Amino acid sequence: MAPQPAAVSPSRLTLSLLPGRLAVCRLEPGAPFPSWATGTVASVTRTPDEMSVVCSEDAVPPEVRAERGFRCLSVRGPIDFSLTGVLSALSAPLAVAGISILAISTFDTDLLLVREALLQAAAAALREAGHTVTGLP
């Protein structure tokens, strides 16, 4: 039986810090699917202009263009597809705090990537907005 969507409200979400540091990489749009895209979180997105890869920082070959040093906050889910305003409820307080994010949506949940140096500030901004953040050192 499939898991039932969690009873969540976009105004009071719970986020958990996932283990490991991530990198966001850029490859050419026609590049083959990268076998090195591994880790607790791994995502590959191809558009007509680029291929973006999010994966474990340690897995990225040195010659690949990458921004390193990201941590991932995962929204407790599953989140029902009909629930609106989730990313807005998370990104708005972070924008006010001057914290840039990379958001990734999956079938069950949303993930926020923030620079490790801004992780504590991001958690504080999210808590101030009424959300719960767990798993921080």
Word description of this protein:
This protein has 137 residues and is α+β, with helices and mostly antiparallel strands. It has a single domain, classed as VC0802-like (2-Layer Sandwich), CATH 3.30.2130. The protein has two helices and eight strands. Strands 1, 2, 3, 4, 5, 6, 7 and 8 form an eight-stranded mixed sheet that branches. β6 and β7 form a beta hairpin. The chain is globular and about 40 Å long.
Shape: globular
- The CATH topology is what? VC0802-like
Which residues sit in consecutive blocks of at least 5 with pLDDT less than 50?
none
Average pLDDT rating: 93
Span between termini? 35 Å
Named CATH architecture: 2-Layer Sandwich
What is the percent of helical residues? Answer: 10-25%
User: What are the secondary-structure elements, in order, as H or E?
Assistant: EEEEEHEEHE
Q: How large is the count of helical segments?
A: 2
Report the count of strand segments: 8
CATH top level?
A: Alpha Beta
Layout of SSEs?
Layout: E1 14-17, E2 22-27, E3 43-46, E4 51-56, E5 65-75, H1 86-96, E6 102-105, E7 110-115, H2 119-128, E8 132-134
Parallel strand pairs: 1-8
Antiparallel strand pairs: 1-5, 2-4, 2-5, 3-4, 5-7, 6-7
Key attributes of the depicted protein:
single chain; 137 residues; alpha+beta; VC0802-like; eight-stranded mixed beta sheet; 2 helices; 8 strands; 15% helix; globular
Summarize the structure.
This protein has 137 residues and is α+β, with helices and mostly antiparallel strands. Helices cover 15% and strands 32% of the residues. Strands 1, 2, 3, 4, 5, 6, 7 and 8 form an 8-stranded mixed sheet that branches.
